[in-house]
Each structure stands twice: as structure tokens, then as C-alpha cells.
Design brief:
The complex is a heterodimer of chains A (280) and B (264). With 280 residues, chain A is an alpha/beta fold. Chain A has a domain of 53 residues. Chain A has 9 helices and 10 strands. A 6-stranded mixed sheet of chain A has the order 6-7-8-3-9-10, sandwiched between helices. A 4-stranded antiparallel sheet of chain A has the order 2-1-4-5, covered by helices on one side. The model of chain A has no long low-confidence stretch (mean pLDDT 89). Chain B has one domain. Helix content of chain B is 80%, strand content 0%. Chain B has 11 helices and no strands. The chains are: A alpha/beta (280), B mainly alpha (264). At the A-B interface, α2 of A face α1 and α4 of B. The complex binds adenosine-5'-triphosphate (ATP) and magnesium ion. The site of adenosine-5'-triphosphate has 13 residues of chain A, from β1, β2 and α1.
């Protein structure tokens, strides 16, 4: 597997104030994200996630270390193949949704008509076609987030970097977002997903890293990271208390222990979605 | 090149929506148009020159303010609203970014210069019509060169672009809108002071000479006012425009470098 993003020993200090006091934002991180992989980058506020992403895009210069995209240092040309959704995206307020997205498409080298068609398609994908002719300044937060996503995928990039894509989205929007990521993955694109929604990262990502105070605290395959050694879970239907007791006994007779017992539940997210669907 | 065009057109939209610019343009235009009514203060035979001075004053004074404020606003809104981050995540270089923003401002200034020039020409024409029978006495032998007025306005536009380019450079290295505006006006004041000194017959020696290399030297533009009522001196005109173009190019290149050193 080729590496889409390769980061080695990245360090970044921010200087502020007249005396130039430095904040250590990244303290020597190294990782490699393979082509076609959905990679999750998680961590507490201020851990350095957005900083890492900005360095990958060449918006910030690291103090030391190196970052390569598809084997090359970031360049103007490499950016043609990258789509980026910034955290809290803001856009030119007076443009309409369609003008905005096609402006970005044109910047990526698309011809005028092709850009408009691509923009329409991208807006449709993120569920904004109804608002396409409204000014972006009148969008709600979630709609801005969707427009940001449309702008990130409009030029069909092979690497998509999403910084907190679900912030401000309603659960249906978040599910749409997840569906888009899944589709990108099926199309063989690489996705770097940075998020505070753990359930989302867990579902979507094949690998993840946890960043903590500018250092990588854990990195690896999602399944491996979350596995509890030697434990399995069974969901059992139609068993009353007596049956369960018997099952426990039987397990014990085989030398295995039932460690935890609780009613199986759907997630609140799932419940919300079903309720809203039913109410429509 | 295409990206520069795209960005500058986008920037022009943005500038035209800034109501402040509209107000400055309207005030300047109103001043030019109202010169007609001020003329009832019977200025004798200086009428035509008076109308022209009004127009050129509006262009120079309000144009400079507009060049500084619009350029600073264009750059800082891009950075403060974080739209620059999205823009630069696309295949857009820092030089394209700076040039696109600068050309957007230049186009807005061109609209402004064109409006003032058109209004001035119209006023000169109307004033002349009003002379009636006493034309010979009132015009004092001056005949208006409308092409000259336009050439003058064009050269003034070039000068405004140079001011705008200097502001662009200042913005590319500063972190606040207020700082950029104040420093830009200080540079403007320094070069205007230099212009006035030279105009009054001061020598360009020592410090003044050094300053004229760093700060734009606008004294070449003041001479062009004679175009309005005389022949166009092509050499002088070309020299002034070329000076402004070179100065703008250097300042935009510096702005591109400044943006590339900046962190977003
Ligand atoms: N422009 C800046 N100047 C100074 N310090 C900064 C700047 N940007 C970020 N920092 C600091 O760098 C550290 C990492 O910030 P970063 O934005 O990368 O965090 P994050 O992981 O994205 O957090 P969040 O989850 O809140 O988005 C923080 O301590 C922050 O204070
Ligand atoms: Mg962040």
C-alpha cells in the first residue's frame, strides 16, 4: 500500500506576544496514512489536530520534520488532488451556494460549464440543492458546514481532509456525512477524518490515532485498538431470567465467565433517526 | 493567470458590496457635480479650471482613501474570516493570491476613476455651454482637451494602483486591519509630503532622496494636470504610467513574498 500522507517527526511551536513565548503545539509526531484508507485523528481540544492538518496543506510551516503527500512535498499541483473542509468554514457571504462551489471548482482548473455541473452535483450530494441559489451569508451553521463539504469534494480529489465535519450538523446531516465518507472510501479515496464524535470515527475509520498534547498517544487499526483481550459479545433474543441463569451456568461449566449482562439497546442516534423518519 | 482573474473578479464583487466604498464614490461624484453650483460665486474667467481642479481633487483625495481602505479591507477580511484558508487549500499560490486581491482592488479603483473622469468631462462641457455669448471672456482662452482629462484620470488611476499595491504589501506582513490602514496612510503622507516639497522647489538630496526611493514618488503625476487644457505630452504620460506600473509590480511581488511567509 502506498502512503497518501507521510508525516515524520513533525514539530510545531507557535510564538505569540512581543516576547515570543512559544506554545508547543506538535511535539514530534510521525504517522503514515495509506492510499484508500479512512483514517481518524482524534484528541482533546488543543491537542494539535488542526495544526497537523494545516501543516499537511502547507498553510503552516513546521519547525522541524517533514510531510509528504503521495510521495512528494506539498505543492500547488498536489493541492489539485486534495479536498479540505476547514473547521468552522466561512465563505464569501455574498455569493450564492452554487457560485461559491463553482468558484472553487474553477480554481481547481475546471472549465466553466463543467465546474457548474460539478458544483450542482456536489451540492446535491450534501443535500443543499434547494438552497443553491441563496446567498451563503444567509445559511445556517449546518448549511455552511454542508457547503464546506461540497467545496471539498467538488473537484473529485483523491485525498479528502475533513476537520470536524459533523460540528453543527443535525443527526441526519451527520448520517449524510457518514454516507458521503463511506462513498468516498468505496471510490478508493483516502480520507483523513478529524472529529470529536467518537461513534462516527469508530464506525467509519479503519485506522485511527489519538493525539494528546502534541504527541501521538495511540495509533493503530480500529478493531485492534478497541478489542478487549479474549472477550466476545452475544446478543440473545427471547431469553428470560431463568434461561439467562442457565446460560451462565453452562458457560461456567465450560470454563468461560459471563462478565456483563444488560438489555440490548439501540443508540440514541438510531432512535432519533427512526423517530424523525416516522414523523415525516 | 486564470486563477488570478477568478480571484480578482471575486474580489471586485466583494468590494462593490462594501457600502463604504459606495459612499466615498458617491460623495466624490456629488462634489464634482456640485461644482456647478459653487460656480454661482462668480469666479470670473477661472471657471473651467475650477471645475477641473474639483474633479482632480476628488479623484486624488477620495481615490487615495479608497485605495488604502479598500485594499486593507480586502486583505484582512480574507484573513480574518478565514476564507484565505479555504482558498489556499486549492491549487492557488501565494503570488496568485496577492495578485488576485490586488487586481480586484485595481478594478474597483478603475470604476471609481472612470466615474469621476466622466463626471468631470460632463461638467466641463455643461459649464462651457453655459457661457453663451460671453464665451470668449469666460473661457479665458482655455479650450478643454477631453482626451487630456481622460489621460490624466488614467494616470491618476495608475497612481492609485501603486498606493493600493503598497497597502497590499503592508497588509501581507501586518496582523491587524487598523495597523495596516494607519501605516498605509503614513506612507501616503510621507510620499505626499515629498511631492509637495519637490513641488515647492525643494531639492531631492540626502534623506529626501532616500525616502523617494522607498516611498512612492508621486510628483511625476502632478505635472499631468496641464493635459486638461493643453496637449498631451505622450512622453510624460508614458513615464508616469510606467513608473506607477513598475512600482505596483515591485510592491505586489513584495506582497506575494509577504503572504508566503505568513501563517494562516
Ligand atoms: N495561531 C495560533 N497561535 C498560537 N497558538 C496557537 C495558534 N493556533 C493554535 N494554537 C495552539 O496550538 C495548540 C493546538 O491547536 P489546534 O488548533 O491544533 O488544536 P485542535 O486539536 O484542533 O483542537 P480542537 O479540538 O479544539 O479543534 C493549542 O494549544 C492552541 O492554543
Ligand atoms: Mg481543531
Amino acid at each position: 500500500m502506498n502512503a497518501a500522507i507521510e508525516i515524520s517527526n513533525l514539530k510545531k511551536y507557535y510564538k505569540y506576544g512581543i516576547r515570543g513565548i512559544a506554545v508547543k503545539a506538535l511535539d514530534g509526531i510521525s504517522m503514515s496514512i495509506g492510499e484508500g484508507e479512512v483514517f481518524g485523528l482524534i484528541g482533546p481540544n488543543g491537542a494539535g489536530k488542526s495544526t497537523t492538518i494545516k501543516i499537511i496543506l502547507g498553510l503552516l510551516r513546521p519547525n522541524s520534520g517533514e510531510c509528504r503527500i503521495f510521495g512528494k512535498p506539498v505543492s500547488k499541483d498536489a493541492k489539485k488532488h486534495i479536498g479540505y473542509l476547514p473547521e468552522n468554514p466561512y465563505f464569501y457571504k455574498y455569493l450564492t451556494g452554487i457560485e461559491l462551489v463553482s468558484f472553487y471548482a474553477k480554481l481547481c482548473g475546471m472549465k466553466s460549464e463543467k465546474a457548474t455541473a460539478a458544483a450542482e452535483k456536489a451540492l446535491d450530494t450534501v443535500g443543499l440543492s434547494d438552497a443553491a441559489n441563496r446567498q451563503v451569508g444567509l445559511y445556517s451553521k449546518g448549511m455552511l458546514q454542508r457547503a464546506g463539504l461540497a467545496q471539498a469534494i467538488v473537484h473529485n480529489p483523491s485525498l479528502v481532509i475533513l476537520d470536524e465535519p459533523a460540528s453543527g450538523l443535525d443527526p441526519i446531516g451527520a448520517a449524510d456525512m457518514a454516507a458521503i465518507v463511506t462513498r468516498l472510501k468505496n471510490d478508493g479515496k483516502t480520507v483523513l477524518l478529524c472529529s470529536h464524535m467518537m461513534s462516527e470515527v469508530e464506525k467509519l475509520c479503519s485506522r485511527a490515532a489519538i493525539l494528546c498534547s502534541g504527541k501521538i498517544a495511540a495509533i493503530g487499526k480500529m478493531d485492534k485498538l478497541l478489542e478487549i483481550d479474549g472477550r466476545v459479545r452475544l446478543d440473545i433474543d427471547g431469553a428470560d431470567a431463568k434461561t439467562l441463569a442457565k446460560i451462565s451456568e453452562f458457560a461456567a461449566s465450560l470454563g468461560a465467565n459471563v462478565v456483563e449482562k444488560s438489555a440490548a439497546k439501540i443508540s440514541l442516534e438510531e432512535f432519533f433517526k427512526r423517530t424523525v423518519e416516522a414523523g415525516k | 493567470m486564470r486563477n488570478i482573474t477568478l480571484i480578482s473578479i471575486n474580489t471586485l464583487h466583494e468590494t462593490l458590496r462594501q457600502k463604504l466604498m459606495l459612499i466615498i464614490a458617491l460623495v466624490a461624484l456629488a462634489l464634482v457635480l456640485s461644482s456647478k453650483y459653487l460656480l454661482s460665486l462668480d469666479l470670473g474667467h477661472e471657471q473651467l479650471r475650477f471645475v477641473f481642479d474639483f474633479g482632480s481633487g476628488a479623484l486624488g483625495f477620495f481615490g487615495s482613501i479608497m485605495a488604502v481602505v479598500a485594499t486593507c479591507q480586502i486583505f484582512h477580511s480574507e484573513i480574518e474570516n478565514k476564507t484565505a484558508i479555504t482558498l489556499l487549500s486549492k491549487p492557488v499560490g501565494f503570488a496568485q493570491f496577492a495578485a488576485g486581491k490586488f487586481f480586484g482592488a485595481a478594478m474597483a479603483l478603475a470604476l471609481f476613476a472612470f466615474a469621476i473622469a466622466a463626471a468631470t468631462c460632463a461638467m466641463l462641457f455643461i459649464t462651457r455651454l453655459g457661457f453663451g455669448n460671453s464665451e470668449a471672456r469666460l473661457s479665458a482662452g482655455l479650450s478643454t482637451n477631453y482626451a487630456g482629462v481622460c489621460a490624466f484620470a488614467f494616470a491618476q488611476w495608475c497612481k492609485l494602483c501603486a498606493i493600493s499595491a503598497v497597502s497590499a504589501f503592508i497588509c501581507s506582513v501586518s496582523s491587524s486591519l487598523l495597523f495596516s490602514v494607519i501605516v498605509s496612510f503614513m506612507v501616503l503622507a510621507a510620499s505626499t509630503a515629498g511631492e509637495v516639497t519637490l513641488w515647492l522647489g525643494g531639492k531631492s538630496e540626502g534623506f529626501a532622496r532616500l525616502a523617494s526611493y522607498i516611498f512612492p514618488d508621486f510628483h511625476v503625476f502632478s505635472a499631468l494636470e496641464s493635459f486638461a487644457f493643453g496637449p498631451i505630452d505622450t512622453g510624460q504620460f508614458a513615464a508616469a504610467c510606467a513608473y506607477a506600473a513598475l512600482y505596483s509590480f515591485a510592491a505586489v511581488a513584495a506582497a506575494a513574498f509577504g503572504s508566503s511567509r505568513r501563517e494562516f
